[in-house]
Amino acid sequence: MCRHKFIIVSGLAAAVLVGLTSVGRADVVQDAKLTASDAAADDRFGFSVGISGFYTVVGADGNDDDGNYSGSAYIFYKDQGGVDTWGQQAKLTASDAAADDYFGHSANISGAYTIVGAYGNDSYSGSAYVFYKDQGGTNSWGQQVKLTASDAAGEDYFGKSVAISGTYAISGAFGNDDGGSFSGSAYVFYKDQGGENSWGQQAKLTASDATGFDFFGSSVAVSGSYAIAGAYGDDDNGASSGSAYIFYKDQGGTNTWGQQIKLTSSDAAENDKFGTSVAISGDYAVAGAYGNDDNGDDSGSAYVFKRNGDQWTQIAKLTASDAAVGDEFGRSVAIDGDKIIVGAYSDNDDGTESGSAYIFELIGETWTQTDKITAADGAAGDYFGYSVGVSGDYFFGGAYGDDGGSSYVFSTTPDVSTLSLLLVGGFGALLRGKGK
């Protein structure tokens, strides 16, 4: 009897393996369209998005609850209101919200924490706010702390970009002028720096070769002990060719967040704007260069780098399979493990600047485009893909131009042919088992 059961299970396992390896990947389908419960024209909902597991945050920096462009952000949960409904769980605003704060211009989420940038706060010195899921009650997503730079000054634009990973958060201030006008900087915060849940500043990051109008910190990302900051105005390879910098938490000493390397593309050229968008996950980093012109002006590209020890080497250049002039592929990027999503918000498939996004997966040692996604109701001026996110099998694309703005959820689902093969293979395995 025991031997009989073992043969059946082994046959099924073999059938599953054959099904997966012979048919390939799953399809990506749209699951939901997200809008704000209090949506209004010009809210720009979807200008920023972040996703972590079954939670997503969507920024709406044009919301005017507390004055024009005071801004807001919204939390959605996959099973809020029903399984896979992606219902709204909370609306976030700053405790000291004011007109022209642009709260929600940037937003990111990691586990039970979300961070939202407000670069216009306090005469554009800027700020960012951390919210905790159970602050003030279960699923209340109350504000835990307001972040500002230790050396804040007017027009630093702190909060123009934000990111969070576990117990670390980072905010870019591309207007900081330590190395010249708009040379830029970024700031790292640790959850328990200065006390439990204090989110105190741990380090200030600047480029080792900072110069005026580099716009360092215009994009930032963090993953574990590594952070990356883009500087799309850097001119090493021509005006606005761009660059990005990776920092390691213990580079040069414990918690010093020293610069580990400067990244540029292998084919850098003037006005590529490499570093306009950046993302990092584990040993991989991505930088978008929407100005790259391999397939026409501003067709765009993105570059993947892999870490080996303290070295980061370019291993891939990504372009769209149907790249065209003015698509601005690379305006947004996100990565999670072996998946990358790249936005091309000016793509014209469903009308001028309707927008799109492209999914790449690491297959073997090669980053390969596996899907192109567009909104099911895409229309001219939606700007789908201006913001993007990925977590596991879920992909997000913001479309802030869609009326008051929207965001779309996509997920991978098993391919029908794959399921058929699995079922047939499994049935055959059962029959073989019964004959033993």
What does this structure look like?
By secondary structure, the protein is mostly beta strands. The protein has 2 domains: 1-24 and 416-436; 28-414, Integrin alpha, N-terminal (Methylamine Dehydrogenase, Chain H), CATH 2.130.10.130. 10% of the residues lie in helices and 42% in strands. The chain is built from 3 helices and 28 strands. The strands form 7 sheets. It has a 4-stranded antiparallel beta sheet, with no helix packed on it. The chain has a 4-stranded antiparallel beta sheet with strand order 2-3-4-5, with no helix packed on it. α1 (2-23) packs antiparallel against α3 (416-434). It is globular and about 50 Å long. Mean pLDDT is 91; it is low at 1-23 and 416-436.
Q: Give the overall silhouette.
A: globular
CATH topological fold name of the largest domain = Methylamine Dehydrogenase, Chain H
What share of residues is helical?
10-25%
Number of helices: 3
Straight-line distance between termini: 11 Å
Précis, in short:
The chain is mainly beta and 436 residues long. The protein has helices spanning 2-23, 121-124, 416-434, and strands at residues 27-34, 45-52, 55-60, 72-77, 87-92, 103-110, 113-118, 127-132, 142-147, 158-165, 168-173, 185-190, 200-205, 216-223, 226-231, 243-248, 258-263, 277-281, 284-289, 301-308, 311-318, 332-336, 339-344, 356-363, 366-373, 387-391, 394-399, 406-413.
